[in-house]
Amino acid sequence: MGGGASRVRPPAVAGLFYPSDPTELRGWIDTALEAAARATPEASSTPRPSSSSPPSPAKAIIAPHAGYAYSGPVAASAYARVAGRDDIARVVLFGPAHRAPLAGVAAPGVDGFATPLGVVAVDVALRDDLVRRGRLTVTDAAHRDEHSLEVQLPFLQVVLGDVAVLPLAVGRGPADAVAAVLDDVWDEPATLIVVSTDLSHYHDHLTAAALDRETAAAIVARHAEAVTPERACGAVALRGLLVVARQRNRPVELLDLRTSADTAGPADRVVGYGAFAVT
Questions:
Q1: Domain for residue 148, yes or no?
Q2: Whose CB has fewer CB within 10 Å in the chain, the N or C terminal residue?
Q3: Cα separation of 271 and 257, whole Å?
Q4: Is 54 left (phi over 0), alpha (psi -120 to 50) or beta?
């Protein structure tokens, strides 16, 4: 991952999961955010609050992490909720470790993550503090090829600009490990939490939609124990977030719920995607 005084992780899935050209990438995200902002309860199958009052600020969002053609419109529904906020200086980002065996929660050892839009600074001071507290390990192998974290970064760059991010890969183990990290960072008002997860995998569209509605209801009800790896690939981090949201009596709002058949894929073998906000 490079050497010298500053180390930067290069993009692993640019050109595969999202456009590698910066102009195309920014345009794609801007268009998706505009579509999400225009969405109304009448134009979507997702139930949304009918109140005309502005929504409460989100402390955390949950967004999917597949290729943008498939999950990007749903991810945009989450990121539209925090777009343009000038009170966020740091993002703590959790995503499942798909590519490397991992137990617990691991931060990268690098100083930044590159995307086609530039370099996202890693919050090294927070990382080192959490390592000292025994909350994290530092494991570059878990981050080298991981897409669940990387695909969130261009969205964060567009909606929040130049904010520091602490990307955390989550492996096997109890959700308590994630909840402990969240407890340490939750009360910092300038910190946004992002949990990256897809929902059901490789069912037909009708089956997946039914399963995902059940999972979404459990998420909104903050029933952490009902969110299993069969229902969400980022289940460990998601359960940790729901535990903390329940303990702190923070409501969870469903923003969007679709499958890849709704966006860009065939209906016989789909992946489910949901967007949520913890307010």
A1: yes
A2: N
A3: 11
A4: beta
Residues 169, 96: contact at Cβ < 8 Å? Answer: yes
- Greatest alpha-carbon pair distance for the chain in Å reads 54
User: How far apart, in Å, are the Cα atoms of 136 and each of 12, 29, 37, 182?
Assistant: 23, 31, 36, 12
Query: What pLDDT digit, counting tens, does each position of 226-238 carry?
Result: 999 999 999 999 9
Tokens of 99: 């590519």
Is 5 among the domain residues? no
* pLDDT tens sequence across 138-161: 999 999 999 999 999 999 999 999
- Rounded Cα distance between 222 and 244, Å, is 9
For position 115, which CATH number holds?
A: 3.40.830.10
Q: Is 106 inside a domain boundary?
A: yes
- In the numeric block, which tokens belong to residue 251? 């409501």
Overall number of domains in the chain: 1
Query: Domain range holding 94?
Result: 22-33+56-278
The number of angstroms, rounded, from the C-alpha of 266 to the middle of its chain's C-alpha atoms is 24
